[in-house]
């Protein structure tokens, strides 16, 4: 996996000029619920890009090899494989409908020719193997070329089947199904750096699995109170440390992060570190706890920092300092004066994700109106960009967008009241080594990259 | 002399007032929004016990005849057959005439015996994603 500064990666997200590269998905106005993209993830090399949607389907794109005749265009991402990962289910005992929506996809590091990924819905995690087949055996003894069985009594000679090349076929098959371990809804999965285990987290519990074993998992965190009336917080996200296989973090709806060390005890209900930014009690309101709820937590590639996303901001934390974040970046502070209507239309509960650039020098997160924000940690500059079909000419530069908060609206600015809150960018991903980003805008997937010199 | 003092004092006060207003404006947006919300929904936040939002989150997809009123809006909930509702409705039906016109399809409550037509269709066909098209 790429460490800091993976091979010639330019510093930061703002000295770069971001350009449109590709967009995937239908253009129609009427978006079917099933087509809404629910997760986006690059694999470790960045050659594969996986998306999951509400219909339980996974689509994997592969980067084409660079074309020497067109040196200015980097490799494009084209469909490599697609399959139905999860299907809708019904829990008859609890009268619970189990959505097929893919909550998260996480790739395993590649160990052989095949690719493996974990995909999960609310209840079940599946390990999928994606393999290529480019050869076919011909000349079987017991069956014809079209598969029909030959009458064994009519066979008079034996032959050795030979392998012949065929058109590339990419097959996806479920290799493991990890089921029945979560009472509540799974929000996160994270592969451990030992490449043997992974964790899955729901609202109240975190389980540790071995990739080979499906009938057992260890519960490592349990925050369910004996009396549910005393419930005050839920787990919102969890992730393993990128290098230390004994360390993981989980975030809560109260805006805190707990770091746990699996060496200290089997059940990690007691944290090793507790990250919380002190709150000014005089500024507390009905909305305070809701907007402080952390929707995503991500370790930096270096393993030194972690980033948390709450409703209005992203914060970067130094793992060595629990008392407060080292950086706070405002994503859309202008929404603070719209919290009442955002509560009424449920937008205040939207769960935005965030991601690091390959060298950890920049971070990115989504917003409304198909806007997404990038923060350069070195230059301290930030930019707002938009994923829209209007800016989708090949290699067209993206123009920075600006939201006007009051008073006179300048030309090209958009006022807060004109923002489309149905166009939310919740899921984004950054290539592990290069400046290529994937942005999911409802049912469309946009790919942007920096201008090649 | 006294006049001068009077002139000076108002200036001081204005200065303090200004600072006060600025501080208030910093927290004002959130508080103003809170006031708006409380005006619309006076009963909000007065339920004892675990937080409403957390309960809603944990019970996503569950029809709970006892607590549905706690959750935000019937139309936001997923609906399916509930034997509690069904039995309540059957018991009530014994005591009164069958309703002539069914109530709003979206409001399946204890007064109405659910029929297969009332329940939303289970999702069906598995079609290839348009991203792959």
UniProtKB/TrEMBL annotation, chain A:
Gene3D superfamilies: YVTN repeat-like/Quinoprotein amine dehydrogenase. Keywords: Repeat, WD repeat. One of its GO terms (cellular component) is protein phosphatase type 2A complex. PANTHER family: PROTEIN PHOSPHATASE PP2A REGULATORY SUBUNIT B. This is Serine/threonine-protein phosphatase 2A 55 kDa regulatory subunit B. Belongs to the phosphatase 2A regulatory subunit B family. GO terms for molecular function: protein phosphatase regulator activity. The gene is PPP2R2D. The keyword Repeat applies. InterPro entries: PP2A_PR55, PP2A_PR55_CS, WD40/YVTN_repeat-like_dom_sf, WD40_repeat_dom_sf, WD40_rpt. The keyword ATP-binding does not apply.
Automatic annotation (TrEMBL), chain B:
Residues 122-133 have a biased composition (Polar residues). Keywords: Cell cycle, Cell division, Cytoplasm, Mitosis, Phosphoprotein, Protein phosphatase inhibitor. The keyword S-adenosyl-L-methionine does not apply. Residues 1-51, 93-133 are annotated as: Disordered. Residues 16-37 have a biased composition (Basic and acidic residues). It is found in: Cytoplasm. One of its GO terms (cellular component) is cytoplasm. Coiled coil: none annotated. Its main location: cytoplasm. GO terms for molecular function: protein phosphatase inhibitor activity. The keyword Cytoplasm applies. It comes from the Eukaryota. GO terms for biological process: cell division. Belongs to the endosulfine family. This is Alpha-endosulfine. It comes from Odobenus rosmarus divergens (Pacific walrus). The gene is ENSA.
